[in-house]
Design a protein that fits this description.
three-stranded antiparallel beta sheet, D-Maltodextrin-Binding Protein, domain 2, globular, alpha/beta, 42% helix, 20 helices, 440 residues, single chain
Length: 440
């Protein structure tokens, strides 16, 4: 696996930025039949489509190679990949493009941002396409399908998927004479292990938790909520689903904070938290496969184990990103659909996964010998893939950014000892419910 190509794999934002502007852009004029650019509406010759891929470094090189091969096998389609911005700035870029009625044909959109982007009539409905595609829709992981499906319609193709597990520093475990955790461990085990690993004199922490209140702070709490029988959004879609169990989930955070066993990273992106782990001063860090290259480069002898649970059942969270297609006329729309269908087939997906550092989007990709060989070379990678079998994604609800902000504030309040879990979750549920009651 190559080093993480962009900060998406370090900072999983909830999309709160540009939310208001995006809502306005969704109402902007636009017939969905624009012919701007080559091949827009019944033009002769090759159709040119614009792809805002959002990649940099190793992932950029990977997408360039894939697009070049696509153009060779599809000579009637040309792909312009010169525009756009990095993934973290894509929401603002797309928002402005929609407001000016000039979106690209394809954009790399975070899964948590898709529900708001898809409010625009320019976002294509891909339901019929995926139901007749070369890879059976059911072959994609459930969490991947859920994230791109809004109100029963498929509004994007999956582009990337990851999951959370716990990476352990084997040296620190050996020094503390603690056995390495195994699948089936509990959150009580996690808290106790973190406490035993902590050594204030050596400035060694048992674990870490982002403390900026951003989405990287929040998405780590949802597996606890789900395992306790709660949800992000209630069944009615108009109220939160975590009021009854949120305090219990936050008690894990509270115990870590009171024990002094958790490193709290106050800055967005969690870079400091990861640096503490990479410097050999943190025993365990819940993270995704994007972190393994840095762990290997730091020459840390490591062990990967699934997330703990309360119930003993495996549960984690997946963070899919998407290729979102915009309707710029029938010719460009068909060409864009052809490209995203091709990219997500196992033969291409496995190249993207290996070269850019992702996990297989589908069971078909996982079964390929190229992926098997790659996974065997990287300690712990198989654990992240296995976790996808039980992973869940965040809800496809336009109010999620506000819900995330409210829960982020609650987590930080508990981490810093400013509130009890019960009081913090009560405040979060009030704010979340207010956001969810707004019609969308």
């Amino acid at each position: 696996m190559t080093p993480p190509p962009y900060s998406r794999r370090q900072l999983l934002r909830g999309g709160a930025l540009a939310f208001a502007a995006l809502a306005a852009a969704a109402c902007a004029p636009g017939s969905g039949t624009s012919t701007g650019g080559a091949g827009g509406g019944g033009s002769a010759g090759p159709v040119t489509i614009e792809m805002w891929h959002g990649q940099s470094d190793f992932a950029l090189e990977a997408i360039k190679k894939l697009v070049a091969d696509f153009e060779k096998s599809h000579p009637t389609i040309k792909v312009d990949i010169s525009g756009g911005v990095v993934a973290d700035a894509m929401l603002q870029k797309v928002t402005a493009a929609l407001a000016s009625d000039s979106p690209p044909d394809i954009a790399y959109i975070f899964g948590s941002d898709l529900p708001n982007v898809a409010r625009s009539p320019r976002v294509a409905d891909l339901t019929d396409m995926v139901n007749s595609g070369p890879t059976p829709w059911q072959d994609y992981w459930q969490s991947v399908r859920d994230v791109v499906t809004i109100k029963g319609r498929v509004r994007a193709m999956p582009a990337l998927v990851d999951s959370l597990a716990v990476v352990c520093n084997k040296k620190l475990f050996e020094e503390a004479k603690i056995p390495l955790p195994q699948a089936g461990w509990t959150w009580d085990d996690f808290v106790e292990t973190a406490r035993e690993l902590t050594d204030p004199k050596r400035k060694v922490f048992g674990t870490g938790w982002p403390g900026a209140g951003d989405e990287d702070t929040v998405w780590r709490i949802w597996p606890l909520v789900w395992d306790l029988g709660g949800d992000v959004v209630g069944a009615d879609g108009r109220s939160n689903g975590f009021a009854g169990v949120g305090a219990q989930a936050l008690q894990v955070v509270e115990r870590l904070a009171k024990d002094g066993s958790v490193y709290i990273d106050p800055k967005p992106g969690s870079e400091q938290m990861y640096q503490v782990f990479l410097s050999g001063r943190m025993g365990m860090v819940p993270t995704g496969p994007w972190q393994l290259p840095d762990v290997i480069d730091a020459k840390i002898d490591y062990h990967v184990v699934p997330l703990p649970s309360f119930s003993g059942r495996p549960v984690t969270i997946a963070g899919p990103d998407t290729w979102t297609v915009f309707d710029n006329g029938p010719d460009r729309l068909k060409a864009a659909q052809t490209l995203v269908t091709w990219l997500t087939q196992p033969a291409q997906d496995v190249r993207w996964d290996v070269d850019a550092g992702s996990l297989p989007l589908s069971k078909g990709t996982q079964a390929l010998p190229e992926w098997t060989e790659h996974a065997e070379k990287t300690e712990g990678l198989a654990t992240f893939v296995t976790a996808l079998q039980s992973a869940r994604g965040r809800p496809a609800n336009p109010a999620y950014p506000q819900v995330s902000t409210a829960v982020g504030e609650a987590i930080v309040a508990v981490l810093l000892g400013r509130s009890t879990p019960a009081d913090a979750i009560a405040a979060a549920t009030t704010k979340a419910d207010a956001a969810l009651r707004v019609p969308n």
